[in-house]
Input
Amino acid sequence: MTDNKSFIKNYILPKVKKPITYQGNEVNAVHKDLNQVSVRFAFAFPDIYEIGMSHLGMKILYSLINSVPDYYCERVFAPWIDMESLLRKNKIPLYALETMDSLREFDFIGFTLQYEMAYTNVLNMLDLAHIPVLANERSDRDPIVIGGGPCVCNPEPLASFFDCFVIGEGEEVLMQLLDDYKKAKKNSNHFSKTDWLLHIAQTYEGVYVPAFYTPEYDQDGKIANFIPKVPGIPAKIKKQFIKDLNHVYYPTKLVMPYHESVQDRIPYEIFRGCGRGCRFCQAGMIYRPIRDKSVDCIDQGIQKLLKNTGYDEITLLSLSTSDYPNIEGLAETLIQKYQNDHITVSLPSLRLDSVSVDVVEKLQRARKTGLTFAPEAGTQRLRDVINKNITEENLMQTASNFFERGWHRIKLYFMLGLPSETEEDIEGIAKLAESVSARYEQMDHPKGQHCQITVSTSGFVPKPFTPFQWFGQNTISQFEDKQSILKNRIKNRNIRYNWSEPILSFYEAVLARGDRRLGKVILLAWQAGCKFDSWHECFKQDKWEAAFEDAHLDPAFYANRHRETSEIFPWDFIDMGVTKSFLIKDLKRAQKAAVSPYCRTGCAGCGIMQFDPSWRCHP
Ligand code: SF4
Output
């Protein structure tokens, strides 16, 4: 590989557009003596460096694995097209950034699966590393390919490509797997991957080994049965979650990217889970229950990170940051400490009804950056259907408060194609934006300055483990018709309208709701040249259509078909804590436009406390 390394540095990297993203060696990148290392883990992000380097899960697991002296975690990202073609042309296998060693030399390749449209990139990265993409074609000498992240709540479309999946939060179970693997490798002259996979499937909750399970289909193509093939493995795989966030590992150092990544600042997670119960939101269901970090823990963690990175910006992360119970106290603590050091703190994921203008103003001080809110639907009726417990009054009041303090740019996010949506709901999006604009004009503001409102819509994707998982998605032409209504309706020059491409939402739904048979489609699509499918300019609709045809499957069967509550889903063997009976109950509430309680003040009985009887959501 040494020859390859100098060849890469001298002949490959000078020819690519962003060489800096393929050479590692950033500040705080970890370097270890390979003679002292017993387990090598490549953390693989199936998208480009700039996106992957912003991913919090990677930062946590990279540091956590490397905190064990003889485990070595390195990073690898999907190379962009220019780099890929040079690697292929020169027959150089894909390598990890820290050592520039080929991925084939690793014990594990761990892919984080954050969005479905990155699936073909997984295959491409394995192939670029000269590793067979199909799990059953890999030998004991090939790395173990392991998957995690939110998409694995339905791992079935990827079942043929992975040796195992970790379901839920990985900090504890992943480390147990590495310890177990190290022991198994040490105690055996001929490590058998199959034996080890069987052992972990039988031993560890939250680990799914797809090769040991078989789905059966009825004549309509729906799942008839899902059968464990070997004795001693569970019929249901239970997600793992960390109960005490104050004591779970959090990095004290971060790799500082050379190249500007999407989030080039300290990300600090202040709580996990969300109890709002928005019915379209998969994260809000699968990351239950809510678990807060204390102000002290956050403060101490931030101090260490500031010292070790030199960043001057911190972003407080969670699914709904303004819902942190002591957000004022936390903000006050951070302001007191860092106001003289020119360190800024940003709060993404603000809710209209819980955001405090004072807090945001204090944190942002002179920088009145744009505000982003997500009413999601244009009318109160539809917001009740989706359980987005915010009113038009909340929006108007919050907007007025910010306008009063000098803000004038607001982004508003909505979804099109939500269950029960009518033309009135779509009109409602335009009306809401117009009301915000009118409110600004009525208030005192600098002469000649107008508000800038950006309305963005995306197509609703019915995701597993949500109360809307039974809904058929709108067709592409329905989405396009709805977008046209809005394009024609929004005439106010203070309001800009952006929309996402319906074709991408359609394939996202197909892959999110798919079964194991989709593996063949993904393989065919990738073989035909599909990759970077989440990038609209790279998406090859004709190749995907041909792949479905060749596999004799209909994508509409997965995306647009409305499902009965009696149907067995491909993901029903995964236990995410939230019960199917709760989701059905909540679906029925949605059909009556009735809202469900918020977990911090009530309980809708989602099932998480039966899932883990030692857990209590309320004291
Ligand atoms: S058990 Fe109740 S409070 Fe806890 S996460 Fe579920 S619905 Fe929310």
About this structure: The two ends are 57 Å apart (CA to CA).
